[in-house]
Amino acid sequence: MPSGRSLGLAKGTSRATRRHPEPPRKCNGKLTFFHRKGSLIMKSKALLLSALFVSVLTTSLARAEDLRAAMEGVNARWLQAYNTNSPQAFLDMYTNDAVLMPPGSPPVNGREAITQFWENRLKPGNRKNHTFEILSAQQDGKTAYQVNRWTADLIKDTGETTKLSGNSVRVFERQSDGGWLIKVHIFNVQ
Is the distance from CB of 9 to CB of 17 less than 8 angstroms? Predict the structure, then answer.
C-alpha cells in the first residue's frame, strides 16, 4: 500500500484521516480524489463551462449593443430625410429589390418606386417630427430586423396638429461595406 506522501497527502496525513472519504482512483491516467459531492474533474468542468457561458453572454451583449447602435444610426438618417422633406435621400437607404408595405395600399417594389412613394407622401409638407422608438432589434448573419414604435405630426390646413402613431417592422440587409440597407419595410397607423 502506498504511503500518504506518495498519494500527495500532507506529511503526517494518512488515508484514514484525509478529507476525501474514498480512496484515490485513476482517471485518464491521473490519480484523482473523489468525494461524495462529485469529483474534482466535474468541478473543474463546471467552472470551465461557467466561464465559457459568461464569455458567450458578454460577447452576445456587446454584439447586441453594436447592432442597436447601427440601427440608431440608420434611424437617424431615415428621420433626417423624412423630417427635412428630402425624399431623394431614401434612394440610398433601401436595397434595389426592397419592398415597402404601407397600410391600406399595395406593396411598393424597388428603391426607385419607394423613393417616389415617400416623395408623394411628403410633397404637401404637412408631416413633421417623425420619431422611432426601437422596441427590439435582432441579427442573424447578414440580416437584421427592427421592431419600433413611431410617431409623427400631421399638420392640417387649419394649422391644427394631429399626432399620428403606429408600429413598424423593418428588415435590413448588411452590405459589403458593413452598412445596413432596408429590404422590407412594413408600417401601420393606429
Answer: no
In DSSP notation, 168-190 reads EEEEEEE-TTS-EEEEEEEE---
- Would the pTM count as exceeding 0.70? no
Residue 12 burial by Cβ neighbours in a 10 Å radius (0-12, 13-18, 19+): exposed
pLDDT tens-digit readout, 95-132: 999 999 999 999 999 999 999 999 999 988 899 999 99
Domains of the chain (ranges, CATH numbers): 48-187 (3.10.450.50)
Q: Which helix (H) or strand (E) holds 145?
A: strand 143-155
- Taking a C-beta distance cutoff of 8 angstroms, is the pair 100, 185 a contact? yes
**In this predicted model, what pLDDT tens digit does every residue of 44-68 receive, in sequence order?**
666 666 656 655 544 444 455 689 9
Question: Do 90 and 114 contact (CB within 8 A), yes or no?
Answer: yes
* 10-24, 106-120, 153-167: least confidently modelled range: 10-24
